[in-house]
Amino acid sequence: MDCRSSLLRGASLAAVVACLPLPAFAQAQAPAQPAAEAPATLEPQAPAQTDAAARDIVVTGSRIATRGFTAPTPTTMISAQDIAQNAQPNIFNTIAQLPSLQGSTGTQVNTFSTSSGQQGLSSFSLRGVGAIRTLTLLDGQRVVGANVTGVPDVSLFPQLLVQRVDVVNGGASASYGSDAVGGVVNFITDTRFTGIKGNLQGGITTYGDNKQVLAQLAVGQSFFDGRLHVVASGEYAHDEGVDGGDFGLKMAGGRTWFHQTSMINRNILNDGSPQYLIRNYTQSNTYTKYGLITGGPLQGTAFDQSGRPFQFQYGSNGVPTRATGGGVAGCFGGSCVGGDLSGNIDVGRSLQSALQRVGGYSRVGFDIAPDNELYFTVNVGQVKTNNQPVNGMNKPGLTIRCDNAFLPGSITQACNNAPLAPGADPNAPRTFQFGTSNAALGNTRVYTNRRQYRFVAGAKGRVPVAGTEWSYDIYGEHGTNYTNVDVNNILLNGRFNNAIDAISVGGQIVCRDPVARASGCQPLNIFGGNPSAQSLSYVMPDNGPYQRTRQTQDVLSINFSGAPLDLWAGPLSIAFGGEFRHEFYKVTADPYGAGSANTPYNSAYPADPLLNTSGNGNWYAGTYKNGHGAYSVKEGFFEANLPILNSDALGHANLNGAARITDYSTSGTVWAWKIGGTWALPIDGVRIRAVTSRDVRAPNLSELFAAPVTQTLPGTLNPFTGETVVAVQNAIGNTALKPEIARNTTAGITLSNPKWLPGLSVSFDWYKLKIEHVISSLGANDIIQLCFQKLVLSTCSATNLSDPTGPYFINAQAFNLASYDTEGFDIEASYRWQRPLGLPGNFTVRALATHVMKFVTDTGLPGNVPVDSAGDNTGNTPSWKWLAIQSYDNDSFSLMLQERWFSDGTFGNKYIVCQAGSCPVSDNNHPTIDNNFYPGRFYMDVGGSYNLTKNITAYAKIDNMFDVDPADSTIFNNPTLYDQLGRTYRAGVRFKL
């Protein structure tokens, strides 16, 4: 029996350890078989183990820890050798390539973001339902969240000690609790590693950027005749990242795929032409790099870097209307095609956030008796990231007075001499409309610093009870995560608005408003690219927006597993236990964002009469607020495995079921359950499996207790009275939220190591997942109308517009309204050929694929029809996604080819494609468009290694070998699917002592 088949049959840890050097994505399917002798390899072999884990491997899909048990939920196992072979600077990158992981975030995601705090956050998403619905574990234990959404940062995990990763492709709430709706990703560490091993790696793209350095070291040693075992690891990684390019079309590193592609909304629904147009080389006609007059008689006058005026070149043969409100004839609303593209800002987004991570991990285990261990772990890590959200700070729609002291004299004269618009007040100050992307002010940068401190103490082992052996696992965990977000080089809007309104007094240019002058206003020249240092310091102070978050997680868990009865077909195995968990967060923001009513001003943030005391609208972006919240969870579970067949004629079959009752302090009691089974048919290597489950996701800290953001809505129509009123919108959490409820069903068939072709493994699994009461947010107008029309009565608690006494408020918060309904199937296949064509070594081929047949989202709002986003390549669920690997290895070297592919798709499945003269009437549910093709991509990677000595191996890897560009679409490019960096080279050395 070879190691590959042992992994696929999946149960003994000794077999798994022996097989770790094999480069295989293994599907956990069947009971363990004796392992073959492991081939020579660089990876150190684990010694014989004396703790409880030495006898059985607990595959993550279940809590049953009994020999021979097979869980019905499809589970893919990724070995340490798989991870090493892929040669990525972060283990997250390797796992995220699996086809069933759709929408995972990493350093190429959220780079547009200023305020989310999720830049550089590495978190997994299974089935495309989001990272908040995928439970990520470390050694089967929860990890404190690195964001208020509750998702952990995989970059903080001890990566060199990871022995394998289990990916459960299905609901597991009955076994593991909340969040395991899409599935579970469980990192299993080598708790008995002995020796010293390390890894040094460097990388760079073909464009000379994203330079990477990785250094990892792990040590392990046993003492007192093997009863005391200590392991420790440390690592340092630095990814330079890829910053944005210059304004216009110039990308970082000379990349050429950016074409400023836009979906233009014509806002015409019934003229026989499509409402939406997909166009390359678009430009805004509402601003330019150094300023553009966008309305009035001087419309079309732009300014160069020195402040000199020139005639702007509009695309689409556009002609400015010179109306007071602006507009360009021949263009599409605010967009033109072609012309002067130098002011476009989108190319400024970082393609990948820079990331630096430092981590340390240690575990001390002491065997108090054979197969019984007390242990303590410490995991301390820090991840720093930074990104540039976009170029400049775009400011369209400014009103400039003609006597502005910074205007060139020719413009001032032309402005004053221009004829008045009909009906205009001749005594009113002369003005014009103006827009600028503020290139002269530089670019904003966001810095994120996450620090995690996690401590676990526990006991696990086996004890005899009433003549049978029982496993136990008891642990307590305390985790704290500190997240600091700092935004540099960003505008204070109140100061900017006063600084650009400049006049000359006594031959000196000053701010027009005397209150602004008294508070230190420094006039800012926005006509060109030469503002003074004093004005820059005034409108963009050194102390920018910040957010300081502290999250804690406390867990106490106890689990038991055993086989109390021998029945007709084998032992009845059960597991049961309970868990208590407490989650807490507190966030503190800067005074200018949080508001003086919440946080006193200090010397770094002095009181300023030009700023809003509520904090809203003060910063150009990055308005953070103060907040806090906590909830507790109490739960208990029971799981049983009942063998029902054990016959050579009929095969071997079992039923597996579990139930969990959970009490949330915020939302009450909820049940989760599962029922399924497997049947090893009396056909060589064939097994069928199926499971259906009720899974839950409780609202997270952010959804329950979001830091409040207040905004004044002066023109709010009150449908209860018919009057226009001033209302205050409060963006807040909703403590009345209930858990999301999911129904998860999978069914499949596997073929594992048949006698007629040893080394072959194939599996096919169909899945269907429907999530009800999905937590989603509503805008103020939706809340008002849904309440007034009595369509969603729960929204009435979020507004008091029906109360004639006022003052009026609308609480914009999340509700349990939407639903997801997705269906598809997974295919996995592998074949391992020992001594191919008589050559020494092994040849392995394998492939994993996921086909999403549907992914229907129903917002729950009346009048909106459900939308199927399967095959929508702007989202996370392409129709097809697969990963294929071919490798050869022997005692001296290894070679590997890897292919990654996802299918062609659309910009959105709701669109109706048509051309001018043939389009039906466009509406919100079925808008018309002229092009709805969004291509897929095929990437090939190649790598290999060479054993320099018995203990030292050199390796190299090229990702995206053919330097395939992303799709020819700028604002739609989806970094969860497309490679935006291009060809990347990596090389390194692994060693062991």
Automatic annotation (TrEMBL):
Record domain TonB-dependent receptor-like beta-barrel: where: 434-960
Is Transport there in the keyword field?
Answer: yes
Q: Where does the UniProt annotation place the signal sequence?
A: 1-26
A GO cellular-component term linked to this record: cell outer membrane
Provide the alphabetized UniProt keywords.
Answer: Cell outer membrane, Membrane, Receptor, Signal, TonB box, Transmembrane, Transmembrane beta strand, Transport
Compartments annotated for it: namely: Cell outer membrane
Bilayer topology annotation: Multi-pass membrane protein
Domain TonB-dependent receptor plug: from-to ranges: 71-184
Keyword Iron-sulfur applies: no
Q: What is its main location?
A: membrane
| Family, as annotated | Belongs to the TonB-dependent receptor family.
This chain belongs to the protein called TonB-dependent receptor
